[in-house]
Amino acid sequence: xxxxxxxxxxxxxxxxxxxxxxxxxxxxxxxxxxxxxxxxxxxxxxxxxxxxxxxxxxx
Length: 59
What we know:
Blueprint: H1 2-17, E1 27-29, E2 32-39, E3 42-49, E4 56-58
């Protein structure tokens, strides 16, 4: 329990040190869609990633 609290404190301290410069921009494409899978009279609907294109993220 103490390790998880210490890890959260360390991560929180590191996050405050990271600041974006003025003019930095985050851009990208996130592609998600609903997929329907059918096998042996069993069907499954799920949220799939990369349905039409791959995900891309840049700075």
